[in-house]
């Protein structure tokens, strides 16, 4: 998806600017200019060179005109101030246009999103609602191509969208997939958000499916895995989390294929993902879980930017959690940042240093001890850098299964198309220890510092 815009410029000044993010296939802008201004500008710029290398400047007259005889009465356009979108506006508009482009090309009838009540899935949901706003505005402005595409998507040749919430109910389905490890708070937040944007919302309990799968495993092996809080090992604990996440992915695709059929409507739905860039970098997601989708509108955006984009207070103040471990006194006992041993704010800084500044472990450490000098000691910074690169390296294999995402920033994650660096590393040699030695090779002046 190309997110540029049409513009008209003369002598370094912008006199007309189009719309940067639009659902229109074609956009034409125009401006009235005086071409004599171009001739004068070029003459002024070239004047210093004429003294050393004098060449005559010829004016060629032709027997046709680019305008009519009344153009002398048209006022020329004056320079305008360039309109820059804020990052939050770009998150709202860019992925929305990209989703529309993909939806109408795919021939599907809308989107389905597993809505957990957290920042990531809520951001994906709000982007779909932003798309509905853009579509309604385009139809109101008389865009017949958008109207035809909307009618084809919803399967109604007489339909005319006027309200974004009503359009959202037709093309967008959300589902909350709760379990015995889920809290009532997340269920309520997901339901309330669905009500605000107008999506068709479902609440699903996955406990029966999880127990059925574990029952098959137990029938074959004679063993029943336990969570860590119940005395289980780390492998048991991780496997029990993964089976819940993967069940959600299977159910998401099942409902995407058949939910419209159950309502007597034709077509299927595209499954939307909601894994942010920080989770992709650290591998903090289950392979083939509900982050595995058809497309992901926020896969190239950091958690920090998503929080700035989302203005839903209840969702923003909730601790990020996958809710895959048993509750403790009815409250969440597992949080993302505790599992990753770093905050999303720290990950956002690390992600930019890794990609934009091209930092490896040592150069990143050298930058962070200055950036975080008031917050962390050099030893604590070193531990975080080592831990990040260890997670980054051991989980690189997951990058090959990432859902195609909208790449909006220079810190976008590397998948098997966007970044061709290796996806499998010899992990014991990456970020294991930070220590220094000075090597003075023969003939060298000074010393070279190495990270080993």
Automatic annotation (TrEMBL):
GO CC term, one of those recorded: cytoplasm
Domain NAD/GMP synthase as annotated: residue spans: 98-348
Pfam family membership, one: NAD_synthase
Gene Ontology BP, a term: NAD+ biosynthetic process
EC numbers: 6.3.5.1
Record's catalysed reaction(s): deamido-NAD(+) + L-glutamine + ATP + H2O = L-glutamate + AMP + diphosphate + NAD(+) + H(+)
Pathway where this protein functions: Cofactor biosynthesis; NAD(+) biosynthesis; NAD(+) from deamido-NAD(+) (L-Gln route): step 1/1
Molecular function via GO: ATP binding; glutaminase activity; NAD+ synthase (glutamine-hydrolyzing) activity
First-tier enzyme category under EC: ligase
Keywords, ordered alphabetically: ATP-binding, Ligase, NAD, Nucleotide-binding
InterPro entries xref list: C-N_Hydrolase_sf, Gln-dep_NAD_synthase, NAD/GMP_synthase, NAD_synthase, Rossmann-like_a/b/a_fold
PANTHER family cross-referenced by the UniProt entry: GLUTAMINE-DEPENDENT NAD(+) SYNTHETASE, NH 3 /GLUTAMINE-DEPENDENT NAD + SYNTHETASE
NCBIfam families attached to this UniProt entry: nadE
Protein family per UniProt: In the C-terminal section; belongs to the NAD synthetase family.
Protein name: Glutamine-dependent NAD(+) synthetase
């Amino acid at each position: 998806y190309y997110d540029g815009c049409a513009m008209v410029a003369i002598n370094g000044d912008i006199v007309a600017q189009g719309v940067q993010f639009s659902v229109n296939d074609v956009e034409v802008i125009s401006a009235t200019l005086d071409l004599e201004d171009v001739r004068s500008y070029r003459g002024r710029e070239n004047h210093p060179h004429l003294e050393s290398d004098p060449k005559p400047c010829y004016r060629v007259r032709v027997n046709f005109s680019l305008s009519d005889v009344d153009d002398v009465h048209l006022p020329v356009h004056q320079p305008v101030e360039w309109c820059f979108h804020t990052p939050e506006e770009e998150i709202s508009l860019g992925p929305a246009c990209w989703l529309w482009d993909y939806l109408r090309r795919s021939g599907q009838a809308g989107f389905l999103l597993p809505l957990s009540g957290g920042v990531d899935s809520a951001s994906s949901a709000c982007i779909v609602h932003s798309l509905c706003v853009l579509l309604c505005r385009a139809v109101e402005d008389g865009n017949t191509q958008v109207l035809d595409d909307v009618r084809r998507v919803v399967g109604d040749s007489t339909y005319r969208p006027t309200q974004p919430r009503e359009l959202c109910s037709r093309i967008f389905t959300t589902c909350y997939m709760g379990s015995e490890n889920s809290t009532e708070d997340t269920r309520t937040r997901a339901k309330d958000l669905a009500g605000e944007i107008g999506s068709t919302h479902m609440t699903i309990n996955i406990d029966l499916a999880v127990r059925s799968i574990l029952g098959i495993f137990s029938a074959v092996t004679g063993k029943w895995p336990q969570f860590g809080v119940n005395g289980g090992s780390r492998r048991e604990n991780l496997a029990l989390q993964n089976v819940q996440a993967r069940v959600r992915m299977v159910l998401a695709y099942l409902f995407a294929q058949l939910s419209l059929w159950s309502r007597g409507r034709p077509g299927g739905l595209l499954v939307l993902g909601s894994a942010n860039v920080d989770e992709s970098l650290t591998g903090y997601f289950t392979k083939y879980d509900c982050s595995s989708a058809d497309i992901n509108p926020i896969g190239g955006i950091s958690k920090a930017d998503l929080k700035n984009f989302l203005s839903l207070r209840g969702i923003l103040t909730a601790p990020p959690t996958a809710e895959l471990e048993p509750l403790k006194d009815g409250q969440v006992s597992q949080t993302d940042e505790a599992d990753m041993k770093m905050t999303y704010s720290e990950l956002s800084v690390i992600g930019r240093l890794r990609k934009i500044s091209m930092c490896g472990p040592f150069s990143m450490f050298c930058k962070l001890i200055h950036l975080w000098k008031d917050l962390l000691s050099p030893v604590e910074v070193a531990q975080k850098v080592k831990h990040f690169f260890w997670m980054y390296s051991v989980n690189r294999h997951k990058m090959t299964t990432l859902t195609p995402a909208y790449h909006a920033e220079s810190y976008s994650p590397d998948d098997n198309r966007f970044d061709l660096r290796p996806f499998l590393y010899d992990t014991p040699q990456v970020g294991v220890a930070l220590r220094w030695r000075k090597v003075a090779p023969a003939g060298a002046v000074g010393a070279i510092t190495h990270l080993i």
